[in-house]
Amino acid sequence: MDVSVKNLKTTGETALAALFAPSGAAASKALRQRAFDLFQTMGLPSRRLESWHYTDLKRMLANVAPRAATSAAANVDAEAGACVIRFVDGHCIGHSALPKGVTLRGLSDVLAQGDADTLGALYASVGSEDPVVALNAALADDGVVIDVAAGVTLDAAIILDFVSSDATARSEFMRCLVRVGAGAKLTLVERHVSAQASAQRHLALAVSVGAHASVSHVFEGVADLDVLLASLLVDVAAQGNFQSFALVSGGRLTRRQIWVRAGQATQVGLRGVSLLRGEQHADTTLVIDHVEPNSESRELFKHILDGSATGVFQGKVVVQPNAQKTDGGMKSHALILSDDATMDNKPELEIYADDVVCGHGATVAQLDDDQLFYLMSRGIPKTQAQAMLIEAFALSAVDFVEDEVQREQVMTFVRDWMMARGA
Question: What is the predicted pLDDT for the residue at 159?
């Protein structure tokens, strides 16, 4: 008997496939077609895919919102000297004055030109086998390509500002590339801060760090979105330095996934704090691939969970055979404030070299009763005492934010979140 197996598509997968209409030069179309074919083969990830075991996107994205309409161009002001590049409803509407040594092109222009080097960086192999990254590569219809010239040190940050105009349900697909030349220094902020938005946002940000260059990246994911799928794809050249911090809070479903390729004698640091309440679900999944010797990586993530919230951390450090003398350390710590909250931790090491120093650890705990009693016995109200302990728990990760303005903004949000919880 001849039995054939059909890969049945869900309503969400069918709706996403219907959005595919590639434009641009032949080379651009070919890359996007290849990504679309991969997505068609894999479909939306479910628990059967190991890297998505704790976030069943096939179920969570059963209903796909219509694609967002193009937004009108508008003037954008700088913020405290920082260059702001603003996206409204998934479309770039403009930017403030660019710093000297920085150039910017729109994604549609890049796709139309079909430049091989730029396309190679925009659709790099890092993370390309993930179905959500492939979906973004196929469907992204707006974004920017930013180039920072070699040797340039930017005193003020470049802010990629993603906002929603209203609470209308919409799908947004954006892809951005930031190339930092050799010896350059940049603070890059990726900001999602819309309130009462119903958007399903798909964003891929590729960052190419040149030799001896330094990039400090800050992710502010505090938008009240229906879905936020944010992929960070990083390639660090020899003796480059990439440091990233993420603040995650708000929205029904947030999935941050990070791939880093670490070259020779590079330094990589990934840290973050997640503040979750209600029925929010936030997933941080990362892979650091050490491919050359003498590199260092550090990961530290703090999760604070209240209500029925769910936190996920999956981290994998891969040390390739040639990456001798790799130094890697990964930690995930969760603070549970409610009996109904859930935390899934899965740190991994995959080592193929024999001269390395690597380790990982994960903890899940509640507020310490003895510490709470100590504070309350000195006249501090219980709510305030809890807030002090929570702030201290988060502070060890927040301290790694290099930019003082960004660090203070993060701590202000943490304190406001705790005050709202107390109220």
Answer: 97
How would residue 145 be classed by pLDDT, with cut points 50, 70 and 90? very high
Nearest to 9 by CA among 54, 49, 40: 40
Confidence check: pLDDT of 198 > 60: yes
Q: Measured between alpha carbons, how far is 411 from 78 in angstroms, rounded to an integer?
A: 22
Q: How do beta strands 281-290 and 296-305 pair?
A: unpaired
Query: Which two three-digit tokens encode residue 84?
Result: 């702001």
Q: What percent of the chain has pLDDT over 70?
A: 98
pLDDT digits (tens, 9 = 90+) for 78-91: 998 899 999 999 99
pTM, whole model, 2 decimals? 0.95
The percentage of residues in the chain with a pLDDT greater than 90, rounded to a whole number, is 82
Q: What is the 3-state secondary structure (H, E, C) of the chain?
A: CCCCCCCCCCHHHHHHHCCCCCCCCHHHHHHHHHHHHHHHHHCCCCCCCHHHCCCCHHHHCCCCCCECCCCCCCCCCCECCEEEEEEECCEEEEECCCCCCEEEEEHHHHHHHCCHHHHHHHCCCCCCCCHHHHHHHHHCCECEEEEECCCCECCCCEEEEEECCCCCCCEEEEEEEEEECCCCEEEEEEEECCCCCCCEEEEEEEEEECCCCEEEEEEEECCCCCEEEEEEEEEECCCCEEEEEEEECCCCEEEEEEEEEECCCCEEEEEEEEEECCCCEEEEEEEEEECCCCCEEEEEEEEEECCCCEEEEEEEEEECCCCCCCEEEEEEEEEECCCCCEEEEEEEEEECCCCCEEEEEEEEECCCHHHHHHHHCCCCCHHHHHHHHHHHHHHHHHCCCCCHHHHHHHHHHHHHHHHHHHC
Q: Return the pLDDT at 402.
A: 85
| Mean per-residue pLDDT of the chain | 94
What pLDDT was estimated at residue 396? 87
* Contact predicate 263/294, CB 8 Å: no
